[in-house]
Automatic annotation (TrEMBL):
Occurrences of domain KIB1-4 beta-propeller (ranges): 70-355
Coiled coil regions, renumbered to chain: none
Pfam hit, one: Beta-prop_KIB1-4
Protein source organism: Corchorus olitorius
Protein name per its UniProtKB record: KIB1-4 beta-propeller domain-containing protein
Domain of life: Eukaryota
Amino acid sequence: MSEIRDWAAIPCDLLRQIVGKSELLIDDYIRAAAVCRSWQACLKQPKFPVCLMLPENEDEDNNMRCFCTASEDKVMERELGELRGRRCWGTPFGWLVTFGLDLEIQLFNPLSRACVSLPSQPTFNTLNLDDGFAYPTPEGFRKFFLHKFAFSSTDPTSPDCVVMAIFTTRQVLLGFASPGDEAWTTIGDGSDAFALDDVTYFNGSFFAVSSLGLLLECQDLDGPSPKCVEFAKSPSYESDDNSVYPQQYIVDLNGHLCMILRMLGSYDIKNEAGEIQVEDVNVTEEFVIFKLDMQSRNWERMVSLGDRCLFLGNCCTFSVLATHYPGCTPNHIYYTDDDYANYEKCGGYDTGIYNFDEGLLLPLDGESDRFRSKFCPPLWIHPSSH
C-alpha cells in the first residue's frame, strides 16, 4: 500500500526554498499559494520581479497581456479583458491606474483582478479652461487628458489614500481624490498654473516638478484653498548639445528627493534602406540626476545610483534595491515612452535601459509591433497579489 503524504505539512522554510529554486512564473506562484491554507500562509508575501507590461494587440480581439522582466524574460501572461481599450499607468505596489473611453478612472490589480473606482473624468474641476481642449472626444480625453499619478499610500484601496493626478486642459493642473470621493479637487485657481512633468509623494507631502525644473510643494490639501508653492529652484545644468531638451521626473531615492532630467533629441525613424518612416520622434539620449538638500534647498548632481535602479516613463517614478529583484541591475535606469503627443505615430518606440555608470543606452525592441500602441505603450509595474 502506497504511503499517503501530507503535503500541507511541509515546513514553510523548505517550501519557500523549493519554490525559490524552481524559477516559477508569477502565475505558477499564485497557483502554488492556492493549493491549501498552509501553503498560502507560507507563500503569502512573494517578491515578484518588476515587470514591463506590454500593450494589447489593438488590431485583434485578443485580451492576453504579457509581462516580462527588464531582461525580456516572460514571467506572466494573463487574459485581462478588463484592460481592453484602456490607457494604463504602472505603480510600484501592484496596481494599475486605468482610463477608458467610458471616461471612468479605476485602480486595477492584474493579479487579484480587484478593481477600485476613483471619481470619473467629468468630475474634474477644469476651472472653465476645458473650452480650449483640442480633442474633446472620448478618444482625445483618453490620450491627452491625464498624464501622471502619485499616491500617499502603498495601499491605494485605503479610503485614507490620496491620489494626485496631473491633468491637462488649456493649462496643466493638479487634482486629487481618494477612493469613495464623488469628485476630484483641483489645486489652485489656474492663474498660477505651471506646465508639469511629474508628481510624487515624499515625507508626507506631494511634490511636483515643472517643465522648467521648478520644484513645487502641494499645501493645505485639507483646507478650502489647496495650493502649489515653489519649494526649490531648478537645478543648474546646461547640456553640451543645444539640440536636446530635458523632461523632468522626481522620485524618493533611498530617502532623498531627487530630480531626473531625461535628455531628449528629435530624430527621424528610418528603415534598413534609409527611408524615413516617421519624422521628428523624441528619443532619449542620456539621464542627469540631482539630489535635493531639504534644508538649504540646493541641488547636488549625482554620479551614481549605488545599488539601486530607477523606473520611469508611463508609470509612477520609483526606485528599488536592484539585488532584491530578479532582472534588475544596479545603477541602471529603466524607461518607457511617455511622450503621449506622439503615441499615434510611434507610441512605445522610446523604451530602453540606461547604464548610468557608463552613460550607455540599450534601446529595447521599440520597432517591434509588440511594443507599439497608439494610446497605451509598455509600462513598468511591480506586481503584487495584495
